[in-house]
Amino acid sequence: MTSSANSLRITFLLPMSAAKPAGGFKVVYEYANFLVARGHQVKVIHPNLLRIDEPLSSLGLKAKIKAVMRYFKMKWTNGYRPDHWFTVSPAVGMPWTKDLSAANVPDADIVVATAWETVEWAITYPPGKGRRFYIIQHLETWSGPEERVFDTWKAPFEKIVIAGWLQRIATEMGLTSHLIPNGMDFTRFRQTVPSEDRDPHQLLMLYHIVEWKGSADGLAAFEIARQTIPELRLTLFGIDPAPPKLPPGVEYHHQPPQDMLNSFYNRAAVFISPSWTEGWGLPPAEALMCGGAIAVTRGGADEAFAIDNETALVSPIKDPAALAANIIRLVLDRELRLRLAKQGHELIQQFTWERSGIALEALMLDAVAPMAEHANAEIETTV
Asked: Ranges for the Glycosyl transferase family domain (predicted)?
């Protein structure tokens, strides 16, 4: 039963601390902010230990001491919070817990898993923890055994997918899912420099040490393109330490603050997204918000906004030469670059958190409506 006629108690389960910026966490916090603004009660749980099959009691002595020390350090310092990279509404509860066992999760109307490991916990919860939802932001076989990951997809949860390719996988598995694309925050990322006023030789790319992010391919593509256009310059940013032996013409910024990152997006004529697989691709979407053209791999940006030769130039994954060719085209062809930047900037405007938040809220209200009707019927029977 809901906590009031129109207000829901909603719990989101994150997989870990939010000390480092993460696109998937950002999506959850955006939903949390939207839902509390709509009058709902929202908590986002951050566990110290994630895996249900790796409890504290199973760890060796050194790992156990490290886990306990981390738990208390984060608890005392609030170091698990995203405050240095994202502003969460003070109305959102932000607990730091030992794990995601039911004892650490409040009773609610809705409980939302956000990663495959969180599903394995949520499926064990009693009904009082809420109707089960699962926001699927990626095919997470890169972080867990394929069979276990797919088993979480088959769990009896309301499934929300953020991209069409994820919905196609669900459909092929015979599963029902709801497609709600990510929204974009146009107050955080916005165009301040006209596209036509930018130096065409200035490029921008997210750097990440995880192999499937394709950073090595992006750097290789830059070096190939620079053989044709020696004036090219590339700015990298990311949460990881600077890559060793950066090529000439490349600079790296570690966790730049919001205003600096927005300025990077507005300085760049072309944004490069070389990933092998992304659930959605927030950085290239942010580049479009800021008026840049994007050269992406098919895995580096969702097809909803990265449409080849309309809003982007798209190349196959793991093909630095093809990516380099698209970078060269965008740099040398001013008319093409400005056309794609303009059309991409216009298209991305439709992806708002208002639109996505209302869609998610509607599904949640529909999910609890039968429970509320049953409770009201019981009350009428007893009167």
From this structure: 196-345
156-166, pLDDT tens digit by residue? 999 999 999 99
- Angle, vertex CA 25, rays to CA 21 and CA 29, nearest 5: 110
Same fold, 9-183+352-382 and 195-348: yes
- Reduced to 3 states (helix: H, G, I; strand: E, B; else coil), residue 202 is strand
Hey, where are the domains in the chain?
9-183+352-382, 195-348
Would the CA dihedral through 108, 279, 119, 103 be positive or negative? negative
Structure tokens at 159: 């499934």
Q: Distance between CA 283 and CA 300 in Å, rounded? A: 9
pLDDT for 70-97, tens place per residue? 999 999 999 999 999 999 999 999 999 9
Residue 354 carries which side chain, given as an amino acid letter?
E
What is the rounded distance in angstroms from the CA atom of residue 235 to the CA atom of residue 253? 8
Structure tokens at 297: 């791999």
H/E element, 270: strand 270-273
Q: Which of 104-108, 143-147, 375-379 has the lowest mean pLDDT?
A: 375-379
SS3 assignment, position 143: coil
Residue with tokens 């870990």: 16
**Helix or strand run (H / E) with residue 160:** strand 158-161
Asked if 323 and 221 count as a contact pair (C-beta separation under 8 A), the reply is yes
**H/E segment holding residue 205:** strand 202-206
Both structure tokens of 116: 């495959």
Rounded to whole angstroms, the Cα distance separating 318 from 356 reads 32
Listing from the earlier edge strand, what are the strands of the sheet with 110-113? Answer: 96-97, 41-47, 9-13, 110-113, 131-136, 158-161, 178-179
DSSP 211: G
Percent of the chain with pLDDT over 90: 92
Q: What is the pTM of this model?
A: 0.88
φ, ψ at 224 (rounded to 5°): -65, -45
So what CATH class is 195-348?
alpha beta
Cα 233 from Cα 200, distance rounded (Å):
10
Q: What is the DSSP letter of 193?
A: S
CA dist., res. 270 & res. 199, Å (int): 10
Q: Within 10 A of 126 (CB to CB), how many other CB atoms are there?
A: 8
Instruction: Report whether 214 contacts 317 (CB < 8 A).
Output: yes
CATH code, 9-183+352-382: 3.40.50.2000
